[in-house]
Write a structure and sequence with these properties.
0% strand, Biotin carboxylase-like N-terminal domain-containing protein, 2 helices, mainly alpha, PreATP-grasp_dom_sf, BC-like_N
């Protein structure tokens, strides 16, 4: 996944999964 896709997917359930996964990986996400 690219950063742009992360931003686009920053909606709904996908956002929750992405944020959760990113947190586990130690990645800072912009909400």
């Amino acid at each position: 996944m690219t950063i742009s896709k992360l931003l686009v997917a920053n909606r709904g359930e996908i956002a929750a999964r992405v944020l959760r996964t990113a947190r586990v990986k130690g990645i800072k996400t912009a909400v």
